[in-house]
Amino acid sequence: HNTNVTKEPKAFLLRCGTLLREKPGTDFNISKVILHDMFSLPNYDIALLQVVGKIQLGTPAMDKITLPPQDTDLAPAGAMTTVIGWGLNSTQSPLLPEKLQTLDIPVVDRPTCISDYKNYNPPEYRISDYMFCAGYDEGIRDSCSAVH
């Protein structure tokens, strides 16, 4: 969702080979930002970043991920999934975490998810047909607030 602010490649830098924001890794400039054809916040909120140069894959710290086939069903309610991100640790502090955040959370069934978010504001961020929910009933742990 950071690419919705700007599609200007110079606004981004890809750092590979480290889980720490300030630790040196291998940095790549971005030559192109490619948004999903159907991108419209909050749906299809994903982009590809084309790097300048070549990323050397196959090391423990840098490798590709395997995506499931296009026709793969979503994980059923209760199945565990992992969220990863650099989001804020607190709404009280604008500081980003030093370490990449990861958390294992359960998939939530769609009716519960829709019910939980029905009064969420702004309304354009309510659960759409293109989303799924994951998290805990307590709502206190998510990709931005828990460190593993």
Outline the secondary-structure elements.
Blueprint: E1 13-16, E2 26-35, E3 47-51, E4 80-85, E5 101-108, H1 110-117, E6 133-134
Antiparallel strand pairs: 1-2, 2-3, 4-5, 5-6
Salient structural properties:
148 residues, mainly beta, Thrombin, subunit H, 2 domains, 6 strands, 5% helix, globular
Question: What's this model, at a glance?
Answer:
With 148 residues, this protein is mostly beta strands.
Could you characterize the architecture of this molecule?
With 148 residues, the chain is mainly β. The protein folds into 2 domains: 50 residues, no CATH class; 81 residues, Thrombin, subunit H, CATH 2.40.10.10. It has a 3-stranded antiparallel sheet with strand order 1-2-3, with no helix packed on it. Strands 4-5-6 form a 3-stranded antiparallel sheet. The radius of gyration is 17 Å and the shape is globular.
Please indicate the percent range of residues in DSSP E strands (runs of 2 or more).
Answer: 15-25%
Report the CATH architecture of the largest domain.
Beta Barrel
For the sheet with most strands, the description reads:
3 strands, antiparallel
Mind telling me the CATH class of the largest domain? Answer: Mainly Beta
Overall strand count: 6
Low-confidence stretches: none
Q: How many independent structural domains?
A: 2
The shape is globular
CATH topology of the largest domain: Thrombin, subunit H
The oligomerization state is single chain
Mean pLDDT: 82
For the record, give the distance between the C-alpha atoms at the N and C termini, rounded to a whole number. 23 Å
Percent helix: under 10%
What series of H and E elements makes up the topology? EEEEEHE
What is the count of DSSP helices, taking H or I runs of 4+ residues?
1
